[in-house]
């Protein structure tokens, strides 16, 4: 996979954006020169091209300036994510600078659409520029030499722009389709059909907002969405998902924490039920991601799953768990809300997404004898969270 390294992508973006911006300034100067020297009857052609340029390249030029500004000055200007400077909040400023300010409700359920929107906006701008270029080519001979000069410049400017589009598309694919923590072997990766994908923990809401644990989903704890993408992206940390009642066949959200190596294995061959546990043998889930921190024995990878409880026995003390195989799930209603449940059959786990902590506490993992991936590292395919901080693209 090209552009495996996130830092490389970031360098590409900076270089290509700089080249595109310089090319835009030169084209703009050429157009203005053309306008100032044009006769009154021939002014329409450069004006249309100028408008097309302003509607496309100028917008990206301003967005890129805004991005650089926010990257270096943003943390000084905005103390928290929701704080406004003038009428502009930090999250809106980031959305503007990454061309993702156009948002609709569906993005909450499908956050991957945010990065594809940016890609589509970039394509739309290139199409607008291409129209300007065609117009310049058609009319170039009539307004030579400046018209010809502009057409040649515009043609060359498409090279970095197309390159930029390729980089952004590869990035989108890598983030949402090809991100795997385990890339040591070249063997074809075949995952269990219930495994949706791996995602880096750095991408989730709590890692992204400067206002710690403030969900970007305005519904907060009252949110009814049970879409795994939504849960992970916007309620990944302290939102709790304990069902008030547990009816047979109920589908709930569960959280499980394990090691990097076990997560890689689960992705390929599904969960393996444990032989014992304090509410019986099976696969254990907490009802919030935070609770896995003190419930798990293995650390480094978080699994968020949609689970069918099947036939459920709800208990209020651990010793009440039934030893018969009469129930599919034992649900332990914890006195202080740290509920957990144990499912007996992996088939009850309908789908899951695995979040990878890219900066695990290696010392702690080694002390507890938690094994790394087969390569000897805890993380091989790394996404640099600095390039995502403050925005989500
Ligand atoms: Zn929500």
UniProtKB/TrEMBL annotation:
Alphabetical keyword list: Membrane, Transmembrane, Transmembrane helix
Sequence intervals crossing the membrane: 12-31, 43-70, 121-143, 149-170
Superkingdom assignment: Eukaryota
Keyword Transmembrane helix: yes
Keyword Cell inner membrane: no
Name of the molecule in the record: PARP catalytic domain-containing protein
Organism: Adineta steineri
């Amino acid at each position: 996979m090209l552009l495996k390294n996130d830092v490389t992508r970031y360098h590409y973006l900076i270089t290509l954006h700089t080249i595109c911006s310089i090319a835009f300034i030169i084209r703009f100067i050429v157009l203005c020169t053309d306008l100032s020297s044009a006769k009154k009857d021939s002014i329409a052609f450069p004006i249309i091209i100028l408008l097309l340029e302003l509607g496309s390249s100028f917008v990206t030029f301003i967005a890129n300036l805004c991005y650089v500004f926010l990257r270096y000055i943003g943390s000084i200007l905005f103390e928290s994510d929701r704080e406004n400077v003038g009428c502009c909040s930090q999250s809106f400023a980031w959305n503007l600078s990454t061309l993702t300010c156009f948002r609709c409700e569906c993005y909450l359920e499908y956050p991957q659409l945010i990065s594809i929107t940016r890609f589509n906006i970039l394509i739309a701008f290139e199409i607008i520029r291409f129209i300007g270029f065609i117009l310049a080519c058609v009319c170039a001979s009539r307004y030579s030499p400046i018209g010809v000069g502009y057409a040649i410049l515009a043609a060359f400017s498409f090279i970095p722009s197309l390159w930029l589009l390729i980089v952004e598309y590869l990035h989108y694919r890598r983030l949402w389709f090809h991100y795997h923590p385990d890339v040591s072997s070249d063997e074809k990766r075949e995952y269990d059909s219930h495994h949706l994908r791996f995602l880096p923990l750095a991408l989730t809401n709590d890692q992204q907002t400067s206002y710690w644990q403030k969900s970007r989903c305005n519904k907060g704890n009252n949110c009814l969405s049970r879409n795994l993408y939504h849960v992970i992206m916007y309620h990944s940390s302290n939102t709790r998902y304990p069902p008030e009642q547990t009816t047979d066949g109920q589908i709930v959200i569960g959280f499980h924490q394990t090691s990097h190596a076990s997560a890689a294995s689960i992705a390929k061959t599904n969960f393996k039920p444990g032989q014992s546990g304090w509410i019986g043998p099976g696969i254990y889930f907490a009802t919030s991601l935070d609770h896995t921190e003190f419930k798990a024995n293995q650390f480094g990878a978080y699994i968020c799953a949609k689970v069918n409880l099947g036939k459920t026995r709800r208990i209020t003390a651990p010793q009440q768990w039934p030893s018969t195989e009469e129930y599919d799930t034992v649900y332990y209603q914890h006195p202080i809300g740290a509920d957990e449940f144990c499912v007996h059959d992996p088939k009850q786990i309908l789908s899951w997404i695995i979040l990878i902590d890219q900066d695990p506490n290696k010392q702690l993992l080694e002390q507890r004898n938690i094994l790394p991936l087969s390569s000897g590292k805890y993380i091989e395919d790394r996404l640099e969270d600095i390039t995502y901080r403050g925005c989500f693209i």
